[in-house]
């Protein structure tokens, strides 16, 4: 039986599924099949990015599902992101068009600024995706594009229908407040790292005050980062094994992963988990059909350590945007 996923109505009237599938670290070799199977399982939102390096394969999975009549394009909500090297205003539209071509579609449902960091332009024919380093190895070269100029270019992309909604990712409160002084189009969505070790309640409050939906990534905390050989993640107790999470899972007959995702969705936050296992794929989608008690939610929120994993410095990259 297909799982009915609730939608979030964005500030521009567009509707976004509250549970989606995140494409970060999905292997190129299996990506097309993974996306196709996720669509078959009931996923409709796919959260991709230039930097993930798998947009062509993601698009192949989508094309197969459409060709077989599983879905129409308008049933899907396809998300991508602008990489740091393309922040110069004149580079924004060309790279959006390249990404659309990679996916094999003619519009994104949502397109984010991936990080509030301008890096020096690297042409796609030189290296794609370009990654953090200008030389592809160790040299960070910051660009000259202001976030205002980049956002204005995104507004043009939105106006031309290349992206039905536009948003920001990895922004903090000060950058949001600054954005409100120059934005003609208010971001539809703010995407942030969000799990019980990094709750960011004040940032979420600020977004809600301005009717900006919030999507949380890395809902399982350190779990996603252990495979990146991150010492901080390896040294942090897994949320799946935390007594507070396990207790709630047992009380509801759910998995710890489902509890972590419900903790977010019940508080109005959208989630984009990924899994390579069919069983977990279905479980992760079924995270709006049960309710945690207020006590359980408060207890889980009480695990907050303000602990951020997805900072460049944790990967040994000398970019200090979260300083």
Automatic annotation (TrEMBL):
SUPFAM superfamilies assigned: NAD(P)-linked oxidoreductase
Residues reported to bind substrate: 114
Molecular function GO labels: D-xylose reductase (NADPH) activity
Domain of life of the native organism: Eukaryota
Active site: 52
Site (Lowers pKa of active site Tyr): 81
Domain NADP-dependent oxidoreductase: residue ranges: 20-303
Pathway as given in its UniProt record: Carbohydrate metabolism; D-xylose degradation
Any Pfam family hit: Aldo_ket_red
Keyword rRNA-binding: no
GO biological process, one term: D-xylose catabolic process
Keyword Oxidoreductase listed: yes
Key words, A-Z: Carbohydrate metabolism, NAD, Oxidoreductase, Xylose metabolism
Protein family per UniProt: Belongs to the aldo/keto reductase family.
Name of the protein this chain belongs to: Aldo/keto reductase
Organism: Pleomassaria siparia CBS 279.74
Species lineage: Eukaryota, Fungi, Dikarya, Ascomycota, Pezizomycotina
């Amino acid at each position: 039986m297909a799982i009915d996923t609730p939608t979030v109505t964005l500030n521009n009237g567009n509707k976004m599924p509250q549970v989606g599938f995140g494409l970060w670290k999905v292997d190129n070799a299996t990506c097309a099949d993974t996306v196709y199977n996720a669509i078959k399982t009931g996923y409709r939102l796919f959260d991709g990015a230039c930097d993930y390096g798998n947009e062509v394969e993601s698009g192949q999975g989508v094309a197969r599902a459409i060709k077989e009549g599983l879905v129409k394009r308008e049933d899907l909500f396809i998300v991508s992101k602008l990489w740091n090297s393309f922040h110069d205003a004149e580079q924004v539209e060309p790279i959006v068009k390249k990404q659309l071509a990679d996916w094999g579609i003619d519009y994104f449902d949502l397109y984010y600024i991936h990080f509030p960091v301008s890096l020096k332009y690297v042409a796609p024919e030189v290296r794609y995706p370009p990654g953090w380093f200008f030389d592809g190895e160790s040299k960070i070269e910051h660009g000259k594009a202001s976030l205002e100029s980049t956002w204005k270019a995104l507004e043009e992309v939105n106006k031309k229908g290349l992206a039905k909604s536009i948003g920001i990712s990895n922004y903090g409160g000060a950058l949001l407040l600054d954005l409100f002084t120059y934005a003609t189009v208010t971001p539809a969505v703010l995407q942030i790292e969000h799990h019980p070790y990094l709750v960011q309640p004040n940032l979420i409050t600020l977004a809600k005050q301005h009717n900006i939906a919030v999507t949380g990534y890395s809902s399982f905390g350190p779990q996603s980062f252990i495979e990146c050989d991150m010492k901080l993640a390896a040294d942090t107790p897994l949320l799946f094994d935390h007594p507070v999470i396990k207790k709630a899972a047992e009380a509801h007959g759910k998995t710890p992963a489902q509890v972590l995702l419900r903790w977010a969705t019940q508080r109005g936050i959208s989630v984009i988990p990924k899994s390579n296992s069919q069983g977990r794929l279905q479980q992760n989608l079924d995270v709006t059909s049960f309710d945690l008690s207020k006590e359980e939610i408060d207890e889980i929120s009480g695990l907050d350590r303000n602990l951020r994993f997805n900072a460049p410095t944790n990967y040994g990259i000398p970019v200090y945007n979260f300083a």
